[in-house]
Amino acid sequence: MWFKTKAQSLLNSEYPVIQAGMAGGTTTPELVAAVSNSGGLGTLGAGYMAPEQIRSAIQAIKALTDTPFAVNLFIPSPKYSREQEKAFIETGLQLTERYRHKFNLESPCINQVEEDFDEQLRVILEEKVPYFSFTFGLPSADTLKKLNDQNIYTLGTATTVDEAIQLETAGIDLIVAQGSEAGGHRGTFLAASMEQAMIGTMALVPQIVDHVSVPVIASGGIMDGRGIAAALMLGASGVQMGTAFLTCKESGAQEVHKQQILNRTEADTMITKAFSGKEARGITNRFMAEMADHRAHIPPYPIQNAVTKDIRKAAGQQKNPDYMSLWAGQGTRLSKSQTAEDLFNQLIEETNTLLR
Amino acid sequence: MWFKTKAQSLLNSEYPVIQAGMAGGTTTPELVAAVSNSGGLGTLGAGYMAPEQIRSAIQAIKALTDTPFAVNLFIPSPKYSREQEKAFIETGLQLTERYRHKFNLESPCINQVEEDFDEQLRVILEEKVPYFSFTFGLPSADTLKKLNDQNIYTLGTATTVDEAIQLETAGIDLIVAQGSEAGGHRGTFLAASMEQAMIGTMALVPQIVDHVSVPVIASGGIMDGRGIAAALMLGASGVQMGTAFLTCKESGAQEVHKQQILNRTEADTMITKAFSGKEARGITNRFMAEMADHRAHIPPYPIQNAVTKDIRKAAGQQKNPDYMSLWAGQGTRLSKSQTAEDLFNQLIEETNTLLR
What we know:
The structure is a homodimer.
Chain A: H1 6-11, E1 17-19, H2 29-38, E2 42-45, H3 51-64, E3 69-74, H4 82-102, H5 117-126, E4 131-135, H6 141-149, E5 153-158, H7 161-169, E6 174-178, E7 184-185, H8 201-209, E8 216-219, H9 225-233, E9 238-241, H10 243-246, H11 255-263, E10 269-272, E11 280-283, H12 286-291, H13 303-317, H14 340-355
Parallel strand pairs in A: 1-9, 2-3, 3-4, 4-5, 5-6, 6-8, 8-9
Antiparallel strand pairs in A: 7-11, 10-11
Helix pairs in contact in A: 2-3, 2-14, 3-5, 4-13, 9-14
């Protein structure tokens, strides 16, 4: 019964199981293709990628699979005045200067922080990617029209019922309900306070399902067949899973990041703005703990993200988890190291056994 | 299939559905008995009750039902020195003085804040209550022996895997896994930080199930048959539900509290220490917002609880929700006003339909 859902027919995949579009190099073409080839929907997390990198990755995916896949982008943030932006950059650099000392890094010359959304989107339209997923807000009506004209299905992220209603009203095809358990960035874009928009998956999914008529994809804390079966019971038409795929062999996440997830517990993650200026869940480390004291002064996304880039890179090169963004959801104890195909087959078998 | 679980046989109730032991007058004998008579396990939330009040309530429940029920108590907090306690009381009274002005209240004379656990427990033992549930920690070995000698089953609250393991090691019969969605007080007693112990139900339940062999009862955000079915898929043997029962006709919660839950959304709750000194989830109001500025100075439980008692009482008498503790979980949009029996029958019907 469970795979005959609205999402499944919309997704054109055998199973309504989506591999989340984690940004930052995790979603290699090999990972995306392995998930899609196994009967799910793989997603290229292209939020931080330059347009031509996105094109190469899409072409690499197409060479590896004939099945549908998705590309995920970040909806651009509100623009700041040049002066405000310069002030934010200066504050961000000051707050993080001590870490540059630590890694012997020159203070970078950050003049302006650009978001390339229009150019990124153009590649998706030109490459006729079957599914476009997004987070941090809602694309403009113009963007949605272009996607619609190309018959590209859209998946938007909601962390509250009001956000889900706004996505449906705008004509989005599927809504990803992101529970508070989820790793990585919060998709929150309407709620008055980030704290009040931290709704657990168990509570969020049925409330969104009751208020929209498009299919709802549950995400946050889902790591195995038990989570998939539970999400379907809550009324979801499918699931999106990030952390579970991050530790797979094909994932491009750094080995030290994978090992942190594989070896830590459910109580080792926290929400932080320290790395990017936008709230995200990751394994608690020294950088997060120290920056928490300056919480009120951390510049907004994407400025803080640009400011910490060299530090994160240097820490990664030295395999030093203390200063890397180790995004992870709360299901860490359920993570495993295996191929994406093996994980996917297990997910389906476990779910089928539970729902038999 | 779903009602033939380990919990059900341990609970001696027809269905493994527990009405949570909400303190503060919510769990009237009528509510507890209605749930137990319907085939679930009702719980008297006796944490704040004087021993003789507990005895009267237990006798009232026994007059209304022949089926098993539970009584819930709070495990006492670490003791402070007399001097430290006096300093805490003074700080608490200062922080809240403006609210006493508002309600024309005299500054109360709080000399010492007592927790009556031993006397409360004695009533439970004497009355041979079938089930003893608790939160905020673990009873002493001596207490557990006394309960065991009387063949009283024990249910302990865990918010992390490590807490669940500690409960099982101590010989507790059933573990209530309290997800971050849950309303009211957090049961956290081991975690290094309260924030890291805010694990969503979807992530918490399967991880606890994998690490203990006693039955696990899921709680947090469960409001209807969808939530029950989902919890069972996650590996839980049953569920505990608080907010859903709080708005029932038989509940002793104040009408203004019920109306707040019935009319607010999933994004209207927050965790606060403002009312009791211990983190709890409730509908966000003015008192919580204003006291958030003084978070670092709020005295610990149970001192702050004693300090705010007169303010909460006055606000309740004036039906002023701005200064009442409006405990609620994140499933608020799913709450309804009906009898506990009607709710219970719906829960069973919905769950049966989903798991047919």
